Amino acid sequence: MKNIFLIFFFLSINAIGQAVEVIGFSSKQPVSFASIAYYKKGNIIAGDYADKNGKFNLNVQDFEMIEISCIGYETKKINKADVAKQVFLMEVPIDLNEVVINSNATFDIGYSKSKRKKINSRLGIGKLSKWQLL
Questions:
Q1: Where is 9: in which H helix or E strand?
Q2: Beta-bridge partners for 79
Q3: Which of 64, 28, 69 is nearest to 49 (CA)?
Q4: Domains in the chain with CATH codes
Q5: pLDDT by residue (tens digit) across 73-117?
Q6: How far apart are CA 74 and CA 92, in angstroms?
Q7: Long-range pairs for 79-83: beta carbons < 8 A, 24 or more residues apart
Q8: Taking a C-beta distance cutoff of 8 angstroms, is the pair 59, 83 a contact?
Q9: How many whole angstroms separate alpha carbon 11 and alpha carbon 3?
Q10: At 121, which helix (H) or strand (E)?
Q11: Per-residue confidence (pLDDT) for residue 108, from 0 to 100
């Protein structure tokens, strides 16, 4: 009876302190600083984040599900029983709108006020009417 208790004790410690690695599905690279939320009965009970190598430990004992998310990746919810040593997140492309900056504004450069096109010509850039962020 004592041996059975010790076996269950060590198995439960292994499951609680399990190391998990978060990896991008297509790139096969670690997902640095992914957010981890622990849920119980639909409510968040704790939070954590992965390190720069995409690794974190399951330190919370009493949870039903975890949610792993990161900018540029699809959020994934995993039941406690289904948590593996590696979790793959799908990459999601992020579309940004075009940004246009007009160069006719004046601004203070510390010692005088000048128009942007005059400064551009001093730097050898030439006269630009619009800048676009690509």
A1: helix 2-16
A2: 65
A3: 69
A4: 2-89 (2.60.40.1120), 99-133 (no CATH)
A5: 999 999 999 999 999 999 998 888 887 776 666 666 666 655 555
A6: 6
A7: 83/18, 83/20, 83/58
A8: no
A9: 12
A10: helix 116-122
A11: 65
Q: What is the pLDDT of residue 8?
A: 47
* DSSP-derived pairing of the beta strands 65-69 and 35-40: antiparallel
* Residue of 77, 7, 85, 90 whose CA lies nearest to 35: 77
Q: What is the pLDDT of residues 15-47, one digit of tens each?
A: 557 899 999 999 999 999 999 999 999 999 999
**CA dist., res. 47 & res. 68, Å (int):** 10
Q: Which one-letter amino acid corresponds to residue 92?
A: V
- Cβ neighbours of residue 55 under 8 Å, at least 6 residues apart? 19, 20, 21, 22, 30
Q: Which amino acid is at 71?
A: I
